[in-house]
Amino acid sequence: MPAVVADSPIIERNFGIGGIHDTPAAHNWLTSFHFHTHPAQVTKPVISCPLAYLITGGFNLPVEREMIIRHHGMGLGRVIDVAQTHFPRIYDRLLCPVSALVKDIPSRLIIRNEIDRIIRQEPFPAFKFVQIETINRCNNDCGFCPVNKNHDPRPFKLMDSDLFYSIIEQLKEMNYAGTLELFSNNEPLLDKRIVAFTETARKALPHASIILFTNGILLTPEKFRKLIPNLDKMRIDNYSWDGDLISQVKTLLDDIRDVEEYARSVEIVSIKKSAIRSTRGGIAKNRGIVYFLKSPCTFPFTQLVIRPDGKISLCCNDAYGRYTLGDLTTQTLSEIWNGNKFRAIREEIMNGRHRLPLCNNCDVFQFESAGATKLYHLLRDGSRGNQ
What we know:
Layout: E1 10-15, E2 20-24, E3 34-36, H1 50-56, E4 68-70, H2 75-86, H3 88-119, E5 129-132, H4 161-173, E6 179-181, H5 194-204, E7 209-214, H6 221-227, E8 233-240, H7 247-256, E9 266-272, H8 299-302, E10 303-306, E11 312-313, H9 333-337, H10 340-350, H11 357-360, H12 371-381
Parallel strand pairs: 4-9, 5-6, 5-10, 6-7, 7-8, 8-9
Antiparallel strand pairs: 1-2, 1-3, 10-11
Helix pairs in contact: 2-3, 4-5
């Protein structure tokens, strides 16, 4: 094993139940796992926070390097996992709603301030996140998903290629430099054109951050190597009933684990199919109760979700497309984003999510700047990202 390089970049290593996830480390106010190492090396971390040491079980940290985050892999997450597994009704009917109420209190001010910052800008800023769903199907059977392969009420639709290229061309004309996600409520690898689509998007949008989420079932090492040069990030959501890696992901991981260039662009998140997660606007299969929440939401101010038929959904939690805010077969991106339907939605949501039926049943709190969110995910999963 090579020696530790003193002047190498700081890597934040997040320890889960069965592996380690490496991400570029910004200043971590919890100061739990910072140490200097080369991404391809393995070393023991310096745990400088006694609380983090206790919560993460630092006395028994694994030493094998993985590009893996274990959903609910840290101390807090393990408690949540036990509650979900052994007391699902209590978790759904009591713990989740109470947790949402607690989050709702600070979120009212935090999210409102974020929205105020956005609407003060002149002209009104364009979207920061675009999701393009080129096929509206999934090949998995996760218990929490409202559109899994066994329970998908949507008529099948495959996006017309010309429509996809038109969207990319419009983004190019805007000099779009935000995030482009080539997925939404679907499995993007079911679309056989996905490699060609990523190539087109990368060439047209050199400054955009292009991201792909996949469940990994159809992801072979060969397809991975065709996709990854055109992506800034690939996240593989490894869904299984027992939390173990599925065979396809194991094969891929064995093939790429020692390739240094993938350390920052590939993320594998292990999630149980039985996990109890957000309500997804009240349509999640294993969630139901949401108490009265008043906080607004930033999605209508930052996100554009495009369905395969070119219609625009309210947000990524509108999996059924109950809201249609525009149609790209007859309108441009700019016309839709600055149109009356989006304006009306924004006016309603600024006064609280209870003003909209779909949002009234949603317990997703979307804001990027709050340290509390980072702390929660660090303690739950070992990751500062929003899982």
